[in-house]
Amino acid sequence: DSGVTQTPKHLITATGQRVTLRCSPRSGDLSVYWYQQSLDQGLQFLIQYYNGEERAKGNILERFSAQQFPDLHSELNLSSLELGDSALYFCASSVQGGQGQPQHFGDGTRLSIL
Amino acid sequence: AQSVAQPEDQVNVAEGNPLTVKCTYSVSGNPYLFWYVQYPNRGLQFLLKYITGDNLVKGSYGFEAEFNKSQTSFHLKKPSALVSDSALYFCAVSAPGGSQGNLIFGKGTKLSVKP
Description:
Structural class of chain B: mainly beta
Largest sheet of chain B: 6 strands, mixed
Helix content of chain B: under 10%
Low-confidence stretches of chain A: none
Shape of chain B: globular
Order of helices and strands of chain A: EEEEEEEEEEE
Number of strands of chain A: 11
Strand content of chain B: over 45%
Radius of gyration of chain B: 14 Å
Largest interface: A-B, 29 and 27 residues
Distance between the termini of chain B: 41 Å
Number of helices of chain A: 0
Oligomer: heterodimer
Distance between the termini of chain A: 31 Å
Number of helices of chain B: 0
Largest sheet of chain A: 7 strands, mixed
Mean pLDDT of chain A: 94
Low-confidence stretches of chain B: none
């Protein structure tokens, strides 16, 4: 058990809808990362937060947004969903936010767009 | 741009034999390199990392990795494979910039260990 909790485990919705994915980091970890895993794109970094502040941005679409709350949990909001957004979304956390930090991954949220 | 390549989509090994999963990287500056393993329907698990120092890095579950700067490689190895090692293995590099820790992953290599 990595200590990172992601909810829900599965999400099925339709095109055009909006969903929110939630992540609770490992106790003591200040940094949260979001990744998207799909068959065609592989594992892609979306966004990183450190202690409530955005620290790095990757291949995140404008339709997607995230935030990290004072209790350090994070939410990833996906809107105007398209079929191509179907993927496994992972949250990871690390103690600090810099290079060289091992990241601990949750078991992911599987998003299916019908 | 930083990148990681895993040239083999799949590696097949007999139980008890040594295994190697290959990884090459392209980074500017000193590389921070990682190996992760993913079991079906699970998140990635950290195996080991190279930051600096000894080129042979030991990690979890008997795995080790050899850093080779001249060949820009970071191959994952294990002396004796177990059936339970069958999983998807990812090599990753930490993006440049000291305050940013996001990882750039290779496409993954599926390891299959047969009894």
